[in-house]
Amino acid sequence: MPKSKLERGNVRVSTVSDEQYRSREASHSEHRTRYEAKAYSASSATSPLAGTTIPRRELTDQDVQIEILFCGICHSDLHYARDEWHDVMPTVYPCVPGHEIVGRVRNVGSAVTRFKAGDVVGVGCLVDSDGTCPNCEAGLEQFCPKQVLTYGSPDKHGTAPVTYGGYSDSIVVDQRFILRVPSNLDPAAAAPLLCAGITTYSPLRHWGVTKGKKVGIVGLGGLGHMGVKFARAFGAHVVVFTTSPSKKEDALRLGAHEVVLSRNIDEMKKHAGSFDFILDAVAAEHDINLYINLLARDGNITMVGAPEKPLPVAVFGLIFGRRSFSGSPIGGIPETQEMLDFCGEHNITADVEVIPIQKVNEAYERMVKSDVKYRFSIDMASLKSE
Ligand SMILES: [Zn+2]
Ligand SMILES: [Zn+2]
Questions:
Q1: Which residues sit opposite 174 in a β-bridge?
Q2: Distance, CA 253 to ligand 1 centroid (Å)?
């Protein structure tokens, strides 16, 4: 890693100036406004995650304090911990990743009516928004210009320079951003629903995937395997595209009706012009035009994987067939709750490998190699021994 990158990574970026931060500290010195939570953090782009303590705020009227039971590992966690998204969102160290959180309510603020101690709840990628912009009014907080991410966003409460995520034994979140997790779902396997789940559920819903539609899922990883489960549960005919013949059996087990090896051009051609919708979950460079040509009239292909470099798109492929090419990020709070309720009704969770927090660095290395079926879920009870 170049030295300059490390230096940039250590710059403390916050809308709360140091002066404001200190004066808040002083004004609150008489009564305790924070407590210490156990966590795993990275102290630089090149250092492994390690045990630490972090400040969490004491409950305000609107807050819910959660004992974290499980936290899924999302690829974003690794990008953020290693400052790989420096240009868009430079990492502020120390950083505590984790936005696939399932836990139990420990305590609630005086104005909280919807949750009580003992409830099993979830927190996804967002912990706050302005609540007043047109996006928030439409329940689409994922598009709010003032959204606060679960980790790495300036902390308006001034508890720390930035928000700290779910690799921790507890978290305090505004009640508006707390989700109910159906009691029949295994909490370890439900955790990835909070990011991987909603990221795939939302575009499938938005583009009208229902019974009778033909749907393609490109890439069978953390996102793709959820896409298969949802598309199947919505009643669609599901086709998985993969580069690995070894994933064929698994794709069928997860609910695919057909599996196409995308490197086999003859096999691809058989499906030309036939898909209503394709969900592309591949973050590596790949030829998007191969898939655009598989869409039927008015078909859409939506990216949920985010390749680093721009993808060349042959516009003729869009014009002929009035096809569209789009992207989609997570989902709003109402839709995330709808997704969790749907999962409760249909018994849908992620396929997870549960690990103790002490194996998180190893898990990152394995995730880079796609060596996980299909999501790691950290058992936070393991943090107690730190
Ligand atoms: Zn994520
Ligand atoms: Zn808003």
A1: 63
A2: 24
